[in-house]
Amino acid sequence: MRTVDDSLFTDTPDGVALVGSRCADCGAHTFPRQGGCPRCTGDSMQDVPLARTGTLWSFTVQGFRPKPPYAGPPEFEPYGVGYVELPEQVIVEARLTESDPDRLWIGMPMVLELVPFRTDDAGTPVLTFAFAPAREEGR
Amino acid sequence: MSADVAIVGIGIHPFGRTPGVSGRRQAVVAARAALADAGVGFADLQFAFGGSHSAGDADTLVSELGLTSLPFINVANGCATGGSALISAYAAIMSGLHDLGIVIGFDKHERGAFNTDPAEHGIGAWYGETGLMLTTQFFGMKIQRYLHRTGMDAGVLTKIAAKAFRNGALNPKAWRRTPLSEAEIAASPMISHPLTQYMYCSPAEGAVALVLCRADRAHHYTDRPVFLRGATLRSRRYGSFEVFSPWLAIERADSPTVDAARAVFEQAGIGPDEVDVAQLQDTESGAELMHMAETGLCAHGEQDGLIAEGATEIGGRLPVNTDGGCIANGEPIGASGLRQVYENVLQLRGDAGAHQVPGGPRVGFTHVYGAPGISACTLLTR
């Protein structure tokens, strides 16, 4: 098993989390990590684990199979995409585990999960991150 | 309000799909039409600015237009390529460096949604591989958030698309020339909830060229000059919500559209309430809705009322996308911004035929928006 990009993730006592950057000068956060601060233009960014829970800020559903570089499984199923606000940090874009727009609403509680995305040419499962409605936590 | 730069010649190659005709060839057709309209030859020009996203380097057009040694500068600014070429021409003339030149925008894209390489935007490969690198998703999420915030009903989105096809049917240079009912638009396949297929523009082909000169010489070339009062370009701020963003700041800021529009109105000394005809970026119908307010042409939340009363129709008090916009013309990235200016020149000259705004419009506004969070605006008067 591997992830789409190991540099996006870190282990925390609560489970795997996304890694962002925090500006030591002004407190701005980014995801993924970057060297320069987009808010104060400084260069004092430090790695920081991002919150694993947040609220849905906006969403859509991808209705058609994207062209490459999309590398999803051969059978296309529409997937949810959203922005999730992580309190006092940043709003992160991610796939959603829910793809029915009638079961998504702005403001709903969400939690980070690692989910199967595809199987690579060597037969290894590849995981990516997604946010799930928080009520499903502990399923 | 000073009038320093005039548009004295316009040319277009029809938008849509033209199999067997390269983007460069379409650019040559547009350029020769603009030269003929101004009554000048390519050898009379002192400068050129131009660009395309996918159809080749603009400066190579000299092999077909004429090897005259003029400085031909390539412009590559995504959807703002045309706007950036105009800003460059404006500066070249305002500075006194040149008196007469041309701007050219053209493109020819493959069918289907754009597939952009994340690396070109400084984003990791995972973003494209996992299916997040799509402009269509951005517009779905931006309008979803916007409707939530303003309380407007999503039904307004079908009305905007229906107007685009209605106006396109009146425009002989447009691609989509068949009116579609609101029911047909609503029932077309869902691309990115809440936006359906017929609410989106498609990548396409086309070319536009404009001949510009010092305003005090305009009457040498035309008895109906149109004046370029302002041309602006802005990039995104910390806190704005832009296409291809793996993250957003929690603190919110205005979009580059707000900044570019405000700047062009200031540059021209003209107010949004003086605009007689507007061409706004309508990548999909939600973009037109949001851009109406972001440009300052109306207040946020006021759009559905304006649309219901017919204000944005060709005969309304705020006509928007009178040539059918991107939805009816398609999106050739390098050409779209200049198409809007071409349409406003037609409108201000009174030459727009079946899609002419009645009453002799005097002030025309254009606006484009695109990746990676840029906007360009122009103001024209006669």
TrEMBL record, chain A:
Highest taxon of the lineage: Bacteria
Occurrences of domain ChsH2 C-terminal OB-fold (ranges): 48-112
TM segment ranges: none
All residue ranges annotated as the ChsH2 rubredoxin-like zinc ribbon domain in the record: 18-44
SUPFAM superfamilies: Nucleic acid-binding proteins
Name the record gives this protein: Uncharacterized OB-fold protein, contains Zn-ribbon domain
Organism: Thermomonospora echinospora
From TrEMBL, chain B:
An example Gene Ontology molecular-function term: acyltransferase activity, transferring groups other than amino-acyl groups
The UniProt record lists the keyword Magnesium: no
SUPFAM superfamilies attached to this UniProt entry: Thiolase-like (SSF53901)
Domain Thiolase C-terminal: 256-380
Gene3D superfamilies per UniProt: 3.40.47.10
Transferase listed as a keyword: yes
One Pfam family this sequence matches: Thiolase_C_1
Keywords: Transferase
Name the UniProt record assigns to this protein: Acetyl-CoA acetyltransferase
Source species of the chain: Thermomonospora echinospora
